[in-house]
């Protein structure tokens, strides 16, 4: 028999059946159909879920502190999750051409993997499943699959730019969310924290769906969802009430599901070290901060004594055992993630948006090992000019230097690639606008003293007896002589820089 959740706003009461986590796992298509039907009917709206959640927290005297703890934990894991997915996505944009493959796939294929991403993301944690009500017009199979650019643009937005660790979450726009915010401007502290917590959960769900869709499409295994759980603990009265509300909203699914299915979901949840971010493995038991646990029932876990000491000195000392407010909870989450991951994406190198666009262009013409430059003769159309490399050895040498520059941000490789490109255009008597080309290079690479570095590359070239550019020093002399015959080596880059 189907169970129904009761939601009340003002004097209006409504009942609706919420599709369950178990159904997401066992019958994803039917689960998705029921969710989209429920969202379209508006029998349950974000306002209904938000009010139920807020009322549950107000029944306990110390609910604000406990709520701030939960918010801080969710924000920490969401920021951490963003950076981990960004690292994966960046690698796939560069090495596996996910952009080209996704755009080339049929809509039916994209729909298949979007559904996998949706259902698997909602099949482990109750709050992520019910959070789908907050993303009803964004996380739909049609929206993410019909136009391939939608999914790619959302995935690309996760990658931080300008070498910073993100301190906030993206604003994924959506009409249902915007309408909810306009009508639910929380003024008291409980409402503000609750609203911030649902915002984090909403963003976190979007992150997981993007990650799981990407990995499913590429035929790769999906990692477990990182759910902060309290090991070997009892629950506060507030938590019991929230769990009761969630069970009711999900149709008391735990009473219906088998013990095996319940244990399977729990096994996918993980405990995370608050210092290094490592997940607790099977048979391992992380220790928690006893002061936080005894004073606030706050679970702050560490994989080792060393991690606990390091985190205490750097961040945790100021909040250990203390009641958290909204501001402190946010600062704690940001500091924790920044400490763990300041240089965790591709060795600390975070490509600019302009460079990512360049990489995608190269992926579309993967058989041609070269580089693109902006053609200033037609800037309105953004036409790009391909630099040709005729010899196989030359192509492989250039590819190694180029790929090292694009994947690691190695300064020498960047300058070698850019110098060779400019030199080739100059000796080929290209009529392109060098000012536009160099401005584009500076925007792509964001390198200090870029023009000075190019001049240093030129000096290295002219110090070589055969005038080979630094990018081509590994090229055989025979091929270099053939390739460079007819070039005017008296030309120097001062004339275009």
Task: Please explain how this structure is put together.
The protein has 497 residues and is mainly alpha-helical. 57% of the residues lie in helices and 4% in strands. It contains 23 helices and six strands. The chain has helices spanning 21-26, 28-41, 46-57, 63-96, 98-104, 107-121, 126-130, 141-145, 148-156, 175-183, 189-217, 237-249, 253-256, 259-267, 290-296, 305-314, 326-341, 353-364, 392-408, 411-427, 434-445, 450-463, 477-484, and strands at 5-9, 12-16, 287-288, 301-302, 372-374, 384-386. The strands form three sheets. It has a two-stranded antiparallel ribbon with strand order 1-2. A two-stranded antiparallel sheet has the order 3-4. The protein is elongated, with a radius of gyration of 27 Å. The protein starts with a strand and ends in a 13-residue tail after the last helix. Residues 273-320 form the MYND-type domain. Pfam families: zf-MYND.
Order of helices and strands: EEHHHHHHHHHHHHHHEHEHHHEEHHHHH
> Oligomeric state of the chains?
single chain
User: Separation of termini?
Assistant: 76 Å
Q: How much of the sequence is in beta strands? A: under 5%
Helix content: 55-70%
Evaluate the radius of gyration: 27 Å
How many strands in all? 6
Q: Biggest sheet, in brief?
A: 2 strands, antiparallel
- Uncertain spans, ≥5 residues at pLDDT below 50? 1-11, 230-239, 342-347, 379-383
Tally of helical segments: 23
Looking across the biggest beta sheet, what order are the strands in? 1-2
Structural class: mainly alpha
The overall average pLDDT, rounded, is 77
Q: What would the principal axes of the Cα set say about the shape?
A: elongated
GO molecular function: zinc ion binding
InterPro entries: Znf_MYND
Organism: Rhodocollybia butyracea
Pfam families: zf-MYND
């Amino acid at each position: 028999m189907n169970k129904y959740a009761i939601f009340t706003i003002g004097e209006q009461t409504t009942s609706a059946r919420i599709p369950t986590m178990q159904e997401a796992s066992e019958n994803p298509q039917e689960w998705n159909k029921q969710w989209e039907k429920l969202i379209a009917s508006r029998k349950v709206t974000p306002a209904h879920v938000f009010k139920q959640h807020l009322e549950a927290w107000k029944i306990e005297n110390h609910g604000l502190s406990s709520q701030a703890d939960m918010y801080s934990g969710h924000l920490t894991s969401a920021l951490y999750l963003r950076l981990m997915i960004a690292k994966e996505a960046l690698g796939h944009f560069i090495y596996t051409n996910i952009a080209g493959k996704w755009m080339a796939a049929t809509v039916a294929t994209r729909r298949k993997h979007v559904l996998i991403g949706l259902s698997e993301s909602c099949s482990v944690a109750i709050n992520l499943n019910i959070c789908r009500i907050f993303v009803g017009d964004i996380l739909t199979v049609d929206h993410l699959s019909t136009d391939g650019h939608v999914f790619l643009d959302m995935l690309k937005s996760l990658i931080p730019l300008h070498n910073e660790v993100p301190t906030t979450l993206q604003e994924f726009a959506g009409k249902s969310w915007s309408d909810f915010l306009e009508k639910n401007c929380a003024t008291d502290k409980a409402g503000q924290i609750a609203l911030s917590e649902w915002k984090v959960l909403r963003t976190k769900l979007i992150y997981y769906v993007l990650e799981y869709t990407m990995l499913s499409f590429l035929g790769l295994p999906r990692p477990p969802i990182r759910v902060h759980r309290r090991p070997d603990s009892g629950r506060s009265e507030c938590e019991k009430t929230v769990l009761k509300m969630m069970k009711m909203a999900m149709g008391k699914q735990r009473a219906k599901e088998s013990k095996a299915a319940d244990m399977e979901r729990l096994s996918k949840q993980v405990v995370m070290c608050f210092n290094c971010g490592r997940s607790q493995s099977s048979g391992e038991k992380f220790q928690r901060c006893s002061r936080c646990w005894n004073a606030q029932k706050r679970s702050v876990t560490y994989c080792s004594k060393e991690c606990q000491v390091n985190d205490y000195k750097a961040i945790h000392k100021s909040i250990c055992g203390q009641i958290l407010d909204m501001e402190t909870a946010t600062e704690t989450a940001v500091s924790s993630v920044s400490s763990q991951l300041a240089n965790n994406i591709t060795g600390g190198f975070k490509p600019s948006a302009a460079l990512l666009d360049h990489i995608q262009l190269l992926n579309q013409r993967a058989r041609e090992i070269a580089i693109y430059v902006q053609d200033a003769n037609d800037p309105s159309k953004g036409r790009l000019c391909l630099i040709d490399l005729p010899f196989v050895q030359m192509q492989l040498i250039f590819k190694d230097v180029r790929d090292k520059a694009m994947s690691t941000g190695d300064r020498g490789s960047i300058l070698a690639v850019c110098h060779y490109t400019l030199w080739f255009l100059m000796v080929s008597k290209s009529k392109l606008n060098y000012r536009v080309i160099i401005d584009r290079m500076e925007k792509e690479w964001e390198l200090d003293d870029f023009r000075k570095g190019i001049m240093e590359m030129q000096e290295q070239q002219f110090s070589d007896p055969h005038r080979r550019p630094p990018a081509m020093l590994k090229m055989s002399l025979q091929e270099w002589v053939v390739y460079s015959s007819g070039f005017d080596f008296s030309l120097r880059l001062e004339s275009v820089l």
